[in-house]
Write a structure and sequence with these properties.
Keywords: Membrane, Transmembrane, Transmembrane helix. The chain is of the alpha+beta class. It has 1 helix and 6 strands.
Length: 135
């Protein structure tokens, strides 16, 4: 074997290819981390909101509002607030705990048509909103 062929190998192209692959991987990871913080997705991981299907209807008596749980996560009554269109809590709010198929009744001093909202207070999320005629 000639002495000039001992150091001539074809392994020289491997190093630049691996370098390019690593640079692309680092760029993608940095873009994902920065995008998460810029879009605020990291902030929403703390307080999670429950997923529930809530029904709001007028009750049989004047001023009564019936809140029914039609499906989803069970709700703790102390974490809920039921308010009317002007933001005033209805009497009986916070309601009792709600599980699927259950319902609670709260009452309003108004005997007119009003918007009723069920709010999850830890996440400050409106779980349900409906306009009901309380007369």
């Amino acid at each position: 074997m000639k002495p000039t062929n001992l150091f001539n190998t074809d392994d020289r192209a491997v190093s630049p290819v691996i370098g390019v692959i690593l640079m692309v991987a680092i760029t993608v990871i940095l873009a994902a981390v920065i995008g998460t913080f810029v879009l605020g997705l990291g902030d929403s991981l703390g307080d999670s909101q429950p997923t529930a299907s809530i029904g709001i209807e007028a009750g049989s008596e004047t001023g009564e509002v019936v809140i029914s749980h039609n499906g989803g996560d069970a709700l703790t009554g102390s974490e809920l607030d039921v308010v009317d269109g002007s933001g005033n809590s209805l009497s009986g709010s916070p309601p009792g705990d709600l599980s699927v198929g259950g319902s609670v009744t709260v009452s309003s001093e108004k005997a007119t048509e009003t918007t009723v909202r069920v709010i999850h207070t830890p996440s400050e999320t409106i779980l349900a909103e409906n306009t009901v005629d309380l007369s």
